[in-house]
Amino acid sequence: xxxxxxxxxxxxxxxxxxxxxxxxxxxxxxxxxxxxxxxxxxxxxxxxxxxxxxxxxxxxxxxxxxxxxxxxxxxxxxxxxxxxxxxxxxxxxxxxxxxxxxxxxxxxxxxxxxxxxxxxxxxxxxxxxxxxxxxxxxxxxxxxxxxxxxxxxxxxxxxxxxxxxxxxxxxxxxxxxxxxxxxxxxxxxxxxxxxxxxxxxxxxxxxxxxxxxxxxxxxxxxxxxxxxxxxxxxxxxxxxxxxxxxxxxxxxxxxxxxxxxxxxxxxxxxxxxxxxxxxxxxxxxxxxxxxxxxxxxxxxxxx
Length: 303
What we know:
Elements lengths: L14 H11 L8 E3 L7 E6 L3 E6 L6 H13 L10 E5 L9 E5 L4 E2 L8 H17 L23 H10 L6 H12 L8 E3 L8 E4 L2 E5 L6 E3 L7 H4 L3 H11 L3 H22 L4 H21 L1
Antiparallel strand pairs: 1-2, 2-3, 3-5, 4-5, 6-8, 7-10, 8-9
């Protein structure tokens, strides 16, 4: 979910452990080098295995269900999507002191999406919207309903009501909490009335790969499932602005109520992270303030 750099060994996982797991369970790859990826997620540790493979290991029990989910569903979703997604190759079992299942995937070329790597942000935003719409069109029959495995993305944002209101109380006097509360209340007043559709759950810059300025792959379906697609619109405020935000909004469509819930999802995440960062990490806090300001302005403009 969260993209960052980490010293090898986080969550008790390091390259030595990965090499032992490979040697014991997949000896055919035992001679391949194991190296941590430069930019890693929080929910999983990822290592490059040789030139063509990666190893992905959940960092805690809450993230472990994603292994079976992704191994089952990624091959079903992939043919209907406009850009590649991870390809499962093998599934590892607990061992060598590591308690969870883990996976081996094909290496995917590309760089993590960022404005300096994108040729035209409006065109990129349209490509992201097209990916979301293609995902929504896939038959959701039998897909995993939103719940704990998706951290309740795809479910009503009301699951996080108490956490959001605690954050609003903590931030009183430091942001416009009255306006923020109005955004949150508006999100809770709407419901998803359509049939469940596939959602990714974490459409964010760290899970989008680019090459030559264009979208080339979408990673990390750990929070995916079927339900309300509002959570997949959060990138409208976390990455896009101005013309690119309008291009995304125009291309992805969605009704007024879905956008209200999307603002709620984006606000929840920005609030809880701002509470943690506001007095300790000026740069992170400034980023979250920008997201909150954009959400509040969007609410004022569109209602």
